[in-house]
Amino acid sequence: MRKNILVIGGTGLVGKVILRILQTRNPDFNLFVGSRKLGKTNNDLLIDVNNPATFDCITDNKIDLIVLCTKDGNNEILEFAIKSKLDYIDITKPTPDLTLAYNLAKANRQKINSRIVFSSGWMGGIVGSLIDFTEPEKHKIQEANIYIYYSVKDLAGKSSANFLAENVCKPFVVYKNNKPQNVKHFLDSEKFNFTFGIGKRQVYNLDVPDLFILNQIEKIATVSVKMTYNSKFVTSLMGYFQSLKIFNIMFLRERQLLFGSSGNGDQTIFEVVIKTLDKIKRVSLQSSKGQAELTAFSTVLHVEKMLSKTLSDGIYFSHQMHSSQEIYEALNSYSTINLKISE
User: Fold this and answer.
1) From 3.30.360.10, 3.40.50.2000, 2.30.30.100, 3.40.50.300, which CATH number describes the 125-289 domain?
2) What CATH number has the domain spanning 4-123+293-329?
3) Hey, which of 84, 276, 285, 336 has its CA 20 to 30 A from 150?
4) Which 3 state secondary structure label does DSSP give 269?
5) Contact at 8 Å (CB) between 295 and 123?
């Protein structure tokens, strides 16, 4: 039977790439695009995540799976998917929204007769799978530290920029020996030596959902995330602005403009340093086509898994659906991804 897949936010940057990759890899899928502005084809659906009255078209078109690529702060789509017994995957939620949505799903666990998947971790939620592949004896992991190289020349959507603009002045939680510690973005600088020719860079705190996922779900005692920009000047400027509390006196609109720069495309890189009692391992990933391509490809892998007959109904984080081997092999064979594992 032909599968009907709805990508809500499918007119956005990542949504468009998801649709392209899905169509290329699975031409038998029937793809629908959900947006607040009605498109020109029968597969374009008018959907406003804040207005449940617009959700009737989901039922009318017999959608099997919803891919959410836009902010749904009230979790209206999540609740609709649970009620309607539809498969659901969300790739958009920052940490505070993810925890709320996950708790909502758990509270409705007895009502769930579909696959509810949270995939808002870094680059489509693939960090957990790469950690599992790099260190299969997960109980031995004492520490996992993620380092991100972000290029202001890369294509970027509004969601991450808006999140930083809204939350840069607020503390967030990292975990050290299972004790939550409040930190702020762009503080606690350290040097990190990136692979792929980047070299040593200053890196600063960044809040991504993997902090919650790796500590609260995977029980890794110490977890941190730090990032650098491709421009050393921009990286230092952000640290300077935070340390002098300049962000606090800026208007939201000004912060949105500051974080919202987007170029024509560039590479993205992230590395995970995994520490056990007797070893340090590193997994390094480079996407030459940038964040949108990597996030979209990861999401497509999750969608394909959800539509297979091997996954039972329930609540998942995306890495919990797969064997780490299959994710590693899929990423490693993708033409624009370079993947390295070292000790």
Assistant:
1) 3.30.360.10
2) 3.40.50.720
3) 276
4) strand
5) yes
Backbone φ and ψ for 40, nearest 5 degrees, come out as -100, -5
- Give the domain ranges of the chain: 4-123+293-329, 125-289
Give the separation between CA 115 and CA 92, rounded to whole angstroms.
Answer: 17
Q: Is the pTM value of this prediction over 0.90?
A: yes
Sign of CA dihedral 235, 241, 244, 248: negative
**Overall residue count recorded for the chain in this entry:** 343
Is the Cβ–Cβ distance between 226 and 204 less than 8 Å? yes
Distance CA 285, CA 291 (A): 11
Give CA separation, 275 vs 133, 144, 283, 319, 342, in Å.
14, 6, 12, 20, 12
The Cα–Cα gap between 98 and 264 comes to 30
Name the residue with tokens 């666990």.
109
- Cα(199)–Cα(185) distance, rounded to whole angstroms? 22
Strand pairing partners for 341? Answer: 283
Report, as ranges of residue numbers, the positions in the chain whose pLDDT lies below 70.
1
Alpha-carbon torsion, ordered 183, 189, 191, 195, to 10 deg:
60
Contacts of 159 (CB under 8 A, 6+ apart): 70, 71, 92
Distance CA 8, CA 55 (A): 11
What pLDDT, on the 0 to 100 scale, is given for residue 112?
97
> What is the DSSP code string of 125-186?
HTHHHHHHHH-S-GGG--EEEEEEEE-TTS---HHHHHHHHHHTTS-EEEEETTEEEEE-TT
> Residues 27-80: pLDDT tens digits?
999 999 999 988 788 899 999 999 999 999 999 999 999 999 999 999 999 999
Helix axes 13-25, 290-306, angle to 10 degrees: 50
pLDDT value for 160: 78
